[in-house]
Amino acid sequence: MENQSATEPVVEDQSATENFEEAAPRRSRTGQRLLAAAVTGCLVLGGTLMVLPWRPPAPRAPAPPAPGAQAQAALTVGAPAALPDLAVLISERETHLRRHPRDAESWAVLGAAYVEQGRRTAESAYYPKAGDALRTSLKVRAKGEPVSVAALGGLAALANARRDFRTAKRYGEAALKLEPKRWTTYPLLIDAYTGLGDWKATGRTLERLQELHGGPAVLARAGGVYRDRGWREDAMAQLSDAAAGARAPAERAAYLERVGQLAWERGEREVALRHFREAVRIDPDQRAAQAGQGRALAALGRTSQALSAYRVALTNQPDPQYALELGELYESLGLRQTAGVQYELVRARVRHAESGGVDGRLVLGQLEADHGSPETAVRLLREEWRRQPGIAVADALGWALHRAGEDEEALRFAVRATDKVHGGGVRSALYAYHRGMIERELGLNGPARRHLQEALRINPYFSRLHVPSAQRALTALGEPSADDVPVMDAKPTRG
What SS3 state is found at 298? Predict the structure, then answer.
């Protein structure tokens, strides 16, 4: 054994070798049969391949981006982002920044994500965190590196979310000065100019935005501007196209909610409800659409479902405006005590939002005018008008003045809110109702009748509380008499 080559097999069992040799012929015959079958199969397959044309393999669908990347992509173009994706993005950026605290770009991304999270949840506690992150982005940039336009844009978005439109304008214009062709800055300025009532600047900014870029986000922004001008058909077309072109579910749901809101403002209850429901189906976190369902269901007389929809919306997005609508629905049902509790919740939610820097004077003034102290409403809304004289503030201040018994001054603001020449072109049933009731109190029966009729024509269901008042006022005014002389609309005030 010692002299045996390492390459020679070692035979330990002679009988096993003999058995192996006896089995060899059998294996050989079996192998021949298998070989024949394989050859036949190849021939058949080959014939089939000669008959069928060759097709290239279908390309694999690209893997969807990770949730954090999806949220960052949405924020980059100013589109709504899904809440779960935002949570992932925030966690990723926070982890990264603990290791790399001087990464200015990541601080800007984190700040923008906080703004969107606060906006979508109505949780104002995110806003101070957003401000800290965005200002840190500006501080930690390398020596000689230019100011971060993304950080300035984030600060403009933060100011808009807080209803601080003057600050939003300042940051937006600073960002635009650094990069005039950065299209994502223009929507931020449109929001700021709209909040300040500067409709000419809004129009110019939209035109420039449309020159620079297209796509769903721009279509949606155009739809909002057209709605404010009273071009309802154009607004509906733009928003419908935006919803059809949006790829991300959260973005599409946001645009569908706006389509539903436009349908609601035209009194199309079933159409509005359908769009609101579709938005919630696509993105269950779309709470504006959930509140929209409550609005439409209440108008359809399905009050139990409406109450449920509002409660769901408020559970996940405690927006004071939704709480006010729910309180008014309770009041319309004769549940005054429950409504009163809800109005107190509105005040509490406004205080909470103010702790995060949100300006709540508009919604609080609307609440006080109809359900609290009109004098308090006038004081709050005068302050708001001095800071940011937008159309919504003009309407609310005019109504508060009327409720406080100051109808002559009230009419000047009501006219401002409904005067197309000065930017009040939005077709709002509520604005028309407010103006008509003020005119009736001043004895301007012709204009009062016209504006009350207009309110009910725009949307016969605009308010469970105010529609009956409009109908009673029209009945009291009666039909126009031969002595009625058309009265020119009062000139609007410049504040």
Answer: helix
